[in-house]
Amino acid sequence: MLSLQTCHLEQIQIQAQTCYPEECCGLMLGTIVEQDGQLHKKLLELYAVDNAWDSAPRNPEEADLPLTATRRYWIAPQDLFKAQQYARTQGWDIMGVYHSHPNHEAVPSECDLKWAWPQYSYVIVAVNPGVPHDFRSWILDGQQFRSEEVTILNSAIAPTLETDI
Ligand SMILES: [Zn+2]
User: Fold this and answer.
1) 144 three-state secondary structure
2) Ligand 1 centre distance from Cα of residue 111 (Å)
3) How far is 80 from 151, CA to CA, in rounded Å?
4) I need a labelling partner for 106 at 20 to 30 A (CA). Which of 71, 94, 112, 145 fits?
5) 147 C-alpha to ligand 1 centroid (Å)
6) What is the distance between the alpha carbons of residues 39 and 35, in angstroms, rounded to a whole number?
7) What are the residue boundaries of the structural domains of the chain, listed by start?
8) For the segment 28-46, what is each residue's pLDDT rounded down to a tens digit?
9) C-alpha 37 to ligand 1 mean position (Å)
10) Interval between CA 108 and ligand 1 midpoint (Å)
11) Domain 2-56+67-163 fold
């Protein structure tokens, strides 16, 4: 279960819009508590990073794919390392990754599945001009993603926001 605040959602949406039509990405920092056999992840701060897809290592079979950062994202290892160090100074953990899907549903792609780590939450925000943002969180369940329950804390939910729990 993931809990976050409306300001976090707004921050992701703004970043998604700024990066459009490319995918934006970042890390979610916070605390993880186990309660009743379930992991409760509390998002405390977003750590935005550049989409480093253009400099990502390619598998030989992917070398010729004309995919750009409009369809992929990549977090550079040095950014991950910096985020980890920062999280530690705050007594937090990296709880997951968020990214945007320009002109696409907030549903993980094959590529998202391929790179997913167990225990991480994967928040995806759909960005389509003029359409309300769809927002969902996913976690690995075996070899598949399943939708993760999201609790939005405090202030009122923006009317344009759709949450799919
Ligand atoms: Zn994706």
Assistant:
1) strand
2) 7
3) 26
4) 94
5) 14
6) 6
7) 2-56+67-163
8) 999 999 988 888 999 999 9
9) 29
10) 5
11) Cytidine Deaminase; domain 2 (3.40.140)
